[in-house]
Automatic annotation (TrEMBL):
InterPro entries: Aminoacid_DH-like_N_sf (IPR046346), Glu/Leu/Phe/Val/Trp_DH (IPR006095), Glu/Leu/Phe/Val/Trp_DH_C (IPR006096), Glu/Leu/Phe/Val/Trp_DH_dimer (IPR006097), Glu/Leu/Phe/Val_DH_AS (IPR033524), Glu_DH (IPR014362), GluDhGdhB (IPR054867), NAD(P)-bd_dom_sf (IPR036291)
Single GO MF annotation: glutamate dehydrogenase (NAD+) activity
Name of the protein in question: Glutamate dehydrogenase
Family according to the record: Belongs to the Glu/Leu/Phe/Val dehydrogenases family.
Gene3D superfamilies: Leucine Dehydrogenase, chain A, domain 1, NAD(P)-binding Rossmann-like Domain
CDD domains: NAD_bind_1_Glu_DH
DNA damage keyword on record: no
SMART domains linked: ELFV_dehydrog
Domain of life according to the entry: Archaea
Site residues (Important for catalysis), renumbered to this chain: 154
Subunit details: Homohexamer.
Any GO BP annotation: L-glutamate catabolic process
């Protein structure tokens, strides 16, 4: 069903607004010191730096970089580093708060951070991107470290960028420090399975949700918006496990086949960027139409704020598993709750990335690399433990999956603050 195009008052909320609202909703279910809640509404620190870059033509251009560090009561700050023209201080703060909740839901010994540079990476040569990354590492050097704040890849950055960042930091420290970032190439301390892990965790949680609601996987239809690292790896895993993936998309549009797509043959974004709609034998449909297909499971795995008041009533899926960060607006969430559509939140579903980043950090500290098989086994175990914790809250309190996830995360963070106390 296509979108009705009706008027909407559902303005996209900022990441900070969403994070604070979700914090307050979770706090309403718990007996938490109001002082802890007040502290968690604000980041510990936000660093803003100027990052000069000598362009290939000899000109010097100044870019703005940020690093928001939200809460470290459970361990070092942890979070992605993105290169995107839309990066803002407020966005970094909100995303750092989400990382705090995500790490707590997964019971990882990390707090939340997020950062990035206001730049379009597509307008940089490879050499310019390297120089920018190395200078950013130097500008942030006093605020990061393996036991202080550990960046990772995000939008516009990748394993190579993490390698440059690690090398620049290590050169200034006078010793190799692989644990300063995660998401590196395995040859310099990265973990096998790290790149696939967010999509794999989405698939694991989708599988568990189907089992919980009695949807046999072999009879389940799935539509996935986005065919980058998260969407493609979720699709490949679900396809391998027997689910019927009937639609996928990239920035140019979607392809749909009610009988199921041959997922193994569709190039991922890494293999061939923006190739989904050129896949042989399928007429493309708009991305918006994919969100409203008559399927059992919908996985928005591209960008935020795609499920809104404008289309929430037209969504026909019974289960939504959030692969992207913040794909559902507040109003859409409320509509889905009234329509009894089950939304499994991003801070649980796509937490495989930070979980395998934790594994990578452990491997770097111990200077001992794990096999891919061990990484996948450990990831499966951690995701199932988190699923069980959230499921228990859903059943005990009768709340949504999103509220349950935040209740789990907040309770762990609050307990840590209570145990540590407040420095005078």
């Amino acid at each position: 069903m296509a979108s009705t195009g009706k008027q909407t008052t559902d303005e996209p909320e900022t990441a900070v607004e969403t994070a604070r609202r979700q914090l307050e909703r979770a706090a309403a279910h718990l007996d938490v010191d109001p002082g802890v809640i007040a502290r968690l509404k604000h980041p510990d620190q936000v660093h803003r730096v100027s990052v000069p870059l000598k362009r290939d033509d000899g000109d010097t251009e100044i870019f703005t970089g940020y690093r928001a560090q939200h809460d470290s009561v459970r361990g070092p700050f942890k979070g992605g580093m993105r290169y995107h023209p839309g990066v803002t201080e407020e966005e970094c703060i909100g995303l750092s708060m989400w990382m705090t909740w995500k790490c707590a839901v997964m019971d990882l010994p990390f707090g939340g951070a997020k950062g990035g540079i206001v730049v379009n990476p597509k307008e940089l040569s490879n050499e310019e991107k390297e120089r920018l990354t190395r200078r950013f590492a130097e500008e942030l050097r006093d605020f990061i470290g393996p036991m202080r704040d550990i960046p990772a890849p995000d939008m516009g950055t990748d394993a190579q960028a993490m390698a440059w960042f690690m090398d620049a930091y290590s050169m200034q420290e006078g010793e190799t420090q692989p644990g300063v970032v995660t998401g590196k190439p395995p040859v310099i301390g990265g973990s096998y399975g790290r790149e696939e892990s967010p999509g794999r965790s989405v698939a694991i949680i989708a599988r568990e949700a189907c089992e919980y609601y009695d949807y046999p996987l072999e009879d389940t239809t799935v539509a996935i918006q986005g065919f980058g690292s998260v969407g493609a790896n979720a699709a490949l895993s679900l396809h391998e496990w027997g689910a019927n993936v009937v639609a996928v998309s990239d920035v140019n549009g979607a392809i749909y086949d009610e009988d199921g797509l041959d997922i193994d043959r569709i190039p991922t974004h890494e293999e061939e960027p923006e190739a989904v709609t050129t896949f042989d034998g399928h007429e493309p449909i708009p991305n918006e139409e994919l969100l409203e297909l008559d399927v059992d499971v919908l996985i928005p795995a591209a960008i935020g704020n795609v499920l809104t008041e404008a289309n929430a009533r037209d969504v026909q899926a019974d289960i939504i598993v959030e692969g992207a960060n913040g794909p559902t607006t507040t109003t859409a969430d409320e509509i889905f709750e009234k329509r009894d559509i089950h939304v499994i939140p991003d801070i649980l579903a796509n937490a495989g990335g930070v979980t395998v980043s934790y594994f990578e950090w452990l491997q770097d500290i111990n200077r001992r690399q794990w096999s891919l098989e061990r990484v996948n086994e450990e990831l499966e175990s951690e995701m199932l433990n988190a699923w069980d914790s959230v499921r228990a809250e859903v059943e005990e309190r009768g709340v949504t999956w999103r509220d349950a996830a935040y209740i789990v995360g907040l309770s762990r963070i609050a307990d840590a603050h209570k145990a540590r106390g407040l420095w005078p």
